[in-house]
Amino acid sequence: MSKALGMIETRGLIASIEAADAMVKAADVTLLRQEKADAALVTIVVEGDVSAVFAAVEAGREAANRFGTVISHLVIPHPDIETKALIQGANKTIEDIEGHKEKSDGETEGNKAEGTEETKPT
């Protein structure tokens, strides 16, 4: 199944929490993040299958409108990997998103004991 990203921007924290709750209850989506843009704007981001994200965003919009104002909403079907990295945050690299970050020095986890140092013969 193809993945999609869904976002709802609300005015007010309570509206965003209600939207997030409705989104994860309405469809099989994963809540990725909540981003506070300024004093009152909050964005909720979810990920899941395309149809699930569309359903979740619609449910979230309806729920948020009961407690505040929905400023905007968006569903991105099949997002580019760089778009996904941008939305998930600056601390994520494209390799992290793809799930196969490779170590630059060729080491694998567990092949070097912690606290050991190489010593040169004297």
| CATH H-tier superfamily | BMC (bacterial microcompartment) domain
Describe the main β-sheet briefly: 4 strands, antiparallel
Helix-strand pattern, N to C?
EHEEHEHH
| Percent of residues in β-strands | 25-35%
| Corresponding CATH architecture | 2-Layer Sandwich
CATH topology label? Alpha-Beta Plaits
Strand order of the largest sheet: 2-3-1-4
Q: What does the oligomeric state look like here?
A: single chain
Question: Secondary structure elements and their pairing?
Answer:
Elements: E1 3-11, H1 13-26, E2 29-36, E3 41-49, H2 50-67, E4 69-77, H3 81-88, H4 94-98
Antiparallel strand pairs: 1-3, 1-4, 2-3
Describe this structure in words.
This protein is 37% helix and 29% strand. The protein has a single domain (3-94), classed as BMC (bacterial microcompartment) domain (Alpha-Beta Plaits, 2-Layer Sandwich). It has helices spanning 13-26, 50-67, 81-88, 94-98, and strands at residues 3-11, 29-36, 41-49, 69-77. A 4-stranded antiparallel sheet has the order 2-3-1-4, sandwiched between helices. Helix 1 runs antiparallel to helix 2 (50-67). The chain contains 4 helices and 4 strands; from the N terminus they run E-H-E-E-H-E-H-H. The chain is of the alpha+beta class. The longest helix has 18 residues, at 50-67. The N and C termini lie far apart (61 Å).
Provide the descriptors you would attach to this structure in a database record.
122 residues; alpha+beta; Alpha-Beta Plaits; 4-stranded antiparallel β-sheet; 29% strand
